[in-house]
Amino acid sequence: MFNTTHPFYLEFIRSLNLSWLEGCDLTYPGPALSSALMFDAVHVVVGAVRELNRSQEIGVKPLSCTSPQIWQHGTSLMNYLRMVEYDGLTGRVEFNSKGQRTNYTLRILEKHRGGHKEIGIWYSNNTLAMNSTSLDINVSETLANKTLIVTTILENPYVMRKDNYQDFQGNDQYEGFCVDMLRELADILKFSFKIKLVDDGLYGAPEPNGSWTGMVGELINRKADLAVAGFTITSEREKVIDFSKPFMTLGISILYRVQLGRKPGYFSFLDPFSPAVWLFMLLAYLAVSCVLFLAARLSPYEWYNPHPCLRERRDMLENQYTLGNSLWFPVGGFMQQGSEIMPRALSTRCVSGVWWAFTLIIISSYTANLAAFLTVQRMEVPIESPDDLADQTNIEYGTIHGGSTMTFFMNSRYQTYQRMWNYMNSKQPSVFVKSTEEGIARVLNSKYAFLMESTMNEYHRGLNCNLTQIGGLLDTKGYGIGMPLGSPFRDEITLAILQLQENNRLEILKRRWWEGGQCPKEEDHRAKGLGMENIGGIFVVLICGLIIAVFVAIMEFVWSTRRSAETDEVSVCQEMITEFRNAVSCKKSSRMRRRRPLSSSAALRHPTRIALGAPRPLRLVREMRLSNGKLYSGADLGPGPQRILDDPLGANTTPPPPAPTPVMICQECRRIQSLRSGSSIGSASTRIPPSSAPLPRETGETEGKKKFNSVRSFNREQDNL
């Protein structure tokens, strides 16, 4: 217990030696401990009195032991005595609030023939540290048929209590990876064990006085033979205890809660573009429609005559880009389906080309992002690395107090890790936690990042899908089995661990306890089927479109039948029933057009609506166009129209008069005639002669019927146009 480095130590020994020689003839045995304690006590009292005298004047008065009065400075002196910190002959001298000496050490000496030899140190917090070099150990001792005390700590999935552990005794109360590994080692080395939970629930960290807490302290004090848990091998622990070879390799990682964006819903197909992009696309569509409408109206090349063969509409020009068509054309281009409307002028073609290029980029971008938005829940990560964590203060972070992770940051010389340690050490309230469960609960309930071993991170992420790992590993280390310093079982346990690794038993045990989680692995990127929660919205859009289409069709049907009923002077219900029967007939794919009777003036305005069996006015016959391409006008009717006028049904078989004057045939009529080349009329009678050649004369009763059929066919063609 003597402090040989004390400046008064040699003078103290010499004074005691002289005093001993004056009163005794025997050899001086050495300084007594009581003398050293008295020396330190005097110095402590002197130092306290000096401090008291500086703060207040001490009056010296006689005291009586029988008097109930106390010294007025006694309480102050006791307070100063408690404040004294002094390195005396007996080591460090400090007192607690109760006046008891604390933070002192006792050296344990072993007597030998040559003198005393230090074999250990006892600390005032009941911790014993023995030196391996001074232990009398039989190195040939084996583990066979021995019972070892195993200290451990409850930590999922290494050591856990069973759900019904009250029904069991001893080791049967516990389960987990380390428990299974202990059983494997016991089978190999033929030993038995008894599991004992560490008293303070800590892994082990050094105290300011040099002692250790947790499992390390129990190994140092020989309260346990083995320490089996998620026990990290560190250089600081290796100085006071022994470790086996690592049975698991890991590193420090960051655990944080998952912050997912909006989950895929019915309208997830809209997610590839933001609402602002959809709005600008709508505005772009309206702008293109308006520009297309104006350009088509202003350009003279978009105005054309669709019926050049009709004499009364020869000077009539039309524009295909009405307001409705201008709105419909961009829709067809955007959906990549095209349209029956094609631009003619250069200006409208420029508008169309720019719009098609725009839709190409938009559709390609949308298609590229659609699959990712439908199948992946994107995670919003505020931090992505330890540097991001160290550079911000919004998210707190910490680790287990007294663990190896805390020691790693405390001893690290890396600048980022030093800043993280300064933050954790100075943060109030404390960011350190007592257990892994407390740290995970803090992660889930607040903005807190938990620094922990990667194996524990992986295990808890498999159990709770709201947890995720941020970044990679901060370091690389391993878990080992702890033993007292100089343990004779170290080599045997190390060889047994290597044997388990070679037999792949440790990997099998790890999979058993780590792969039971409910959450999918983050590295599983296989394609997954889409459910209704992903693409249900497109079905909603489809149903809404069908409902709107049916509603518009009903409105068109009602409007049409109502107008027909007013013209034919029948009831609306009767007309609606008749039209509905014709519309829903499943056996008929075509029907005759219903022609309403017209007045003579209306007939002249609408010649194609005259019944085929009714007499036709002369003016109407003069304006008829035959489907074989022959055109008649004015009084020069010729035998064809005259025949139709006199004998519409061809009953009269009188030979026809001479042929009519030839007329030039336009290209539009020639095209129509070519489409009818395979009709019931003979090919010889329907062939169109060249535009410059005269039309041949036709005679006989059959010619009248052919011309009549030609007129009827051409009328139908005009109605279609």
UniProtKB/TrEMBL annotation:
Disulfide bonds: C465-C519
Keywords tagged on the record: Cell membrane, Cell projection, Disulfide bond, Glycoprotein, Ion channel, Ion transport, Ligand-gated ion channel, Membrane, Postsynaptic cell membrane, Receptor, Signal, Synapse, Transmembrane, Transmembrane helix, Transport
GO CC, one annotated term: postsynaptic membrane
Database matches in SUPFAM superfamilies: Periplasmic binding protein-like I (SSF53822), Periplasmic binding protein-like II (SSF53850)
Residues annotated for L-glutamate binding in this entry: T232, R237, S404, T405, E453
GO MF entries: ligand-gated monoatomic ion channel activity; signaling receptor activity
Feature: compositional bias, Low complexity: 676-688
Protein name: Glutamate receptor
Natural source organism: Lates calcarifer
